[in-house]
Amino acid sequence: MSEQLYLDKAFFKQSLLDMAKLTEEQRDYWTSLDSDIGDGDHGVNLSIGFRGISAQMNDLYEETEDIHSLLKKSGMILLSKVGGASGPLYGSFFMKMGEDVTGKNQVSYSEFLGMIKNGIAAVQHRGKAQVGDKTMIDAFLPGLEVLETYQVEEDPYQFFEKFIEVMKKGAESTIPLVANKGRAMRLGERAIGHKDPGSESSWMLMDIFNKNLKVRSEI
Ligand SMILES: [Mg+2]
To answer: How far away, in angstroms, is 81 Cα from ligand 1 center?
Structure first.
């Protein structure tokens, strides 16, 4: 079933635009999470970055020859515009996502999962965080483990839903933790009881892919 599902460049364009919309809607919430344990700029930073992507999207879409370049250029915008730790991390995610599908204008569902895996590996490589450090890796890594279990017989939409659910739980799991990375580290035990903002934004951003997959399932 999943082998009949192909995602084209327009799917990624729409997802990036929807992520930009999400960052506007969630900006104050993500910033308030970051105000609890960081420097209170997470939502604002991401909205600046994604505004840059949406402002340039029509040109990016026309000028890029494949999905990889569209994502790579979008990631470069995040990298250049977003301050704090999240810019380089999300920037790397999108820059590396399409590396294995260079030259393609549509990808299979399995290739799409591979792209998410590459993105997560890039975040891991760049941030060097472990599970339990109270970072976005607490959401991404359990998600990655789910992606590794994919079998072609599975329903692609339910499978991706499972990926999101596990990421969401991973974000919840940061609440009782002391931070081992970032500014929250300085708070020591005072970070306990607060959710890590990057873990929350990461599952919510991936949920945009989930929502757009569901749109595809209804066509
Ligand atoms: Mg911050």
So the answer is: 14
